[in-house]
Amino acid sequence: MTPDAAPVTYFAPAKVNLGLSVRALRADGYHDLHSLMVPLNVGDDLEVRGAGTLSLTVTGADLPTDERNLVYRAAQAYLQAAGVTGGAAITLHKRLPLASGLGGGSSDAATTLMALARLYPSGVNLATLARGLGADVPFFLLGRAATAAGIGEVLSPTPVPRTALVLLNPGVEVSARDAYIWLDAEEDFSGALDIEAIVAALSNGRPVPYFNALQDPVAARHAPIRAALRALEEAGLHSPLMSGSGGTCFALAQNDDQAHEAVQALSRAYPDWWVTAACTL
Q1: Per-residue model confidence as pLDDT tens digits over 76-130
Q2: What gap in Å lies between CA 174 and CA 269, rounded to an integer?
C-alpha cells in the first residue's frame, strides 16, 4: 500500500470479564487468573494507512503518541519483526474510558497488529508479539469469548450466548497494579469459576453465579464504584459486576430494549457518568 492510499478503519472491541478469579500470587509477581472474557460490540476505532514512517494520532483522549502508547509499541514491534522498511500512519479514535477495566489499550494493540499484518503481510507470529505486549492482548487477537487461565494468556474458546448488557463508568480511573496490590494485602484469593454454570445462567436469563475477586478491594476504596453497582440494579438490570480492575461496572438485561431503556434512565440520573448499552459478540 502506498503512503497516499486511503486509510482503512478497524474496530477494536471492548471486553468484559464475566467473572474473574485471582487464584494465587506467582513467584514472578504475576497472578494466576481464571476468567470468562467476552468481546463487546462497543469499542475504539483505528484508521491505518501505509506511510514512510510510523506516526500515531489520538482523538478523544489525552494520550501519548510515542513509545509510551501501546498502539505505537505494537506497530513498532510488528514493523521490526516483519522487516518492513516503511511505516504506518495510525489514528486512534478513543471512545472507551481510560483505565476502565474494558481492555481498551490491549484491544487497540491487538487490532494494530492485525491491521499491519494486512497492510504488510509477512510470516510474523502475531501471537508471540501479542504476548510480549500485555496479558490481555492475545485474547483480543483471538477475537471471541474465551476462558482465560495462567496470567490470562492461556485461552480456551468458550461459546457464550448473545447477551445484552449496560456498561456504567462513574469517572473513576483504577490502576490494575493498585487493584492487585490491594488484593494481595488481603490475600483474598479464590477458587476457579464455574464456567458451565455461568454460561447456563446466561442462556436462561437467570442471575449469573459469577464474582470478581478485585471488586471488593477496589470498591472499598472508591465509593462511586459502589454507587454504580447499586444504580445498575436499581435500573432493573441483574447480576451487576465490576469488569476487570474497574472502574467500569456492568449488569445484564433481558433484551436490547431493556438495556436501552436503562441507559436512558441512568443517563438522566447520572449525566456526568459514561453509560452505554452493549451486547456480547
Answers
A1: 999 999 999 999 999 999 999 999 999 999 999 999 999 999 999 999 999 999 9
A2: 23
Shared domain for 19 and 79, answered yes or no, is yes
The active-site residue out of 15, 44, 94, 108 is 15
pLDDT digits (tens, 9 = 90+) for 206-255: 999 999 999 999 999 999 999 999 999 999 999 999 999 999 999 999 99
User: Is 132 marked within a binding site?
Assistant: no
Kindly tell me if the per-residue pLDDT of 2 is higher than 70.
no
Q: Examine the domain organization and report whether 25 and 145 are in the same domain.
A: yes
Q: According to the annotation, is 134 in a ligand binding site?
A: no
Choice among 45, 136, 178, 257 that is catalytic: 136
Cell of 33: 487468573
Domain count, the chain: 2
247 is an annotated ligand-binding site residue: no
Residues 24 and 150 in one domain: yes
Whether the CA torsion 172, 177, 182, 186 is positive or negative: it is: positive
Examine the residue annotation and report whether 94 is marked as an active-site residue of this protein: no
pTM (predicted TM-score): 0.95
Question: Burial of 266 by CB count in 10 Å (0-12 exposed, 13-18 middle, 19+ buried)?
Answer: buried
Rounded CA gap, 111 and 74, in Å? 9
The reply to whether 105 and 176 lie within a common domain is no
CATH number, domain containing residue 113: 3.30.230.10
136 is catalytic: yes
Q: Determine whether the annotation assigns residue 107 to a binding site.
A: yes
Give the end of a domain, one of 125, 157, 189.
157
Whether residue 41 is contained in a domain is answered as yes
Residue 104 marked as a ligand binder: yes
| The domain boundary residue, chosen from 157, 174, 199 | 157
